[in-house]
Specification:
The chain is mainly α. It is built from 13 helices and no strands. The longest helix is centred in the N-terminal third of the chain and has 39 residues.
Length: about 325
């Protein structure tokens, strides 16, 4: 064996390392809130840890993308269970936000170099100029990757994954666990889900009465609210089950017009995207109120008190959107 062989093996291992996508946690019918919260947080921690490794060891564009997805999902989980997770959970949520902002510029450069530039220059005949622009963007991307790798290796970023693992393993939220919080943690998840999902839907409604009239910043907030609702459904409802599946498909389909409305600068195109959005919201306001809340919270599918009070509803299935 030569001295070069271990290094070659390490390179092969790095090349085989791929990004980890999100996976839906599977809850039991009698799980309590604490068990479900742990399961959701472990799933986020696994996705974050793996994709931190991908960013550190490979140039795969999927690494930064799936790292940001994992961080966003972690923030949603900690927001959903913020009453149970306590002050330490709130701190972890802010640390995840900071890491996502750090990785964002690399993700932007990946999209520019791999998606936007090839489409934009598809009919550009000047090949030398095209190659020079691609080389310039690639050099800028490499510099950004090096800066971000260095920042992720330094405190406080370097310790986020470990702090999250310890928070889950040690049940860090129990340090602040008084009587009411202990009772909330012991409550059955099925009784908690309707209120959590209604909270997410109220945020979507509040931010999106008419996307065509919103500012760019307001459209961005609406898009984040829709993603929060999607992740909440994925975290909390049974996978592949009747109305829960239909509602999730509808929310994924909703991400398309919201994304187009956010990016539209042409008033008529923005108005068309806004019309699709208003149609979805009418179905959510006036349709069947049980929706996936009933299929998750009650075995019989009966209307839950939370869904009856807020008017949650199912919507027609649609095409999947982006994460």
């Amino acid at each position: 064996m030569t001295g070069d062989e271990p290094a070659a093996g390490g390179v092969a291992e790095a090349e085989a390392l791929g990004p980890r996508h999100a996976r839906r946690p599977h809850h039991g019918a009698d799980d309590d809130v604490e068990t479900a919260m742990c399961r959701c947080l472990r799933e986020c921690a696994a996705q974050i840890a793996r994709n931190l490794e991908v960013v550190a060891l490979t140039d795969s564009p999927g690494g930064p993308h799936q790292l940001r997805v994992g961080l966003r999902r972690l923030r949603v989980a900690l927001w959903l269970f913020r009453d149970e997770a306590g002050a330490e959970g709130a701190m972890l949520r802010e640390e995840a936000r900071a890491m996502a902002r750090l990785v964002g510029p690399l993700r932007d450069r990946d999209v520019l170099a791999d998606e936007i530039l090839p489409r934009g220059l598809a009919g550009f005949a000047d090949q030398p100029a095209r190659a020079a622009l691609a080389a310039l963007l690639e050099a800028d991307r490499a510099q950004a990757r090096a800066r971000i790798r260095a920042a992720l290796a330094e405190p406080p970023m370097a310790g986020l994954a470990r702090r999250l693992e310890l928070f889950i393993a040690d049940r860090g939220w129990r340090a602040e666990c008084d009587g009411p919080r202990a009772a909330a943690l012991a409550r059955r998840l099925a009784g908690r889900v309707p209120g959590l999902l209604d909270r997410c839907l109220r945020r979507v409604r509040a931010r999106g009465r008419d996307p065509a009239r919103l500012s760019v910043e307001q459209r961005h907030e609406l898009r984040k609210a829709v993603k929060t609702l999607r992740y909440a459904i994925e975290f909390l409802t049974p996978a592949g089950k009747g109305r829960a599946r239909e509602y999730l498909r509808a929310v994924k389909a909703l991400q398309g017009p919201v994304r187009r409305a956010q990016r539209c600068r042409d008033r008529r195109r923005a108005a068309r995207a806004g019309a699709r959005w208003r149609g979805w919201m009418r179905r959510a306001r006036h349709g069947r109120r049980a929706s996936c809340w009933g299929s998750c919270g009650n075995a019989s599918g009966a209307r839950s008190p939370a869904s009856a009070s807020t008017g949650t509803a199912s919507a027609a299935p649609g095409r999947s959107g982006r994460r």
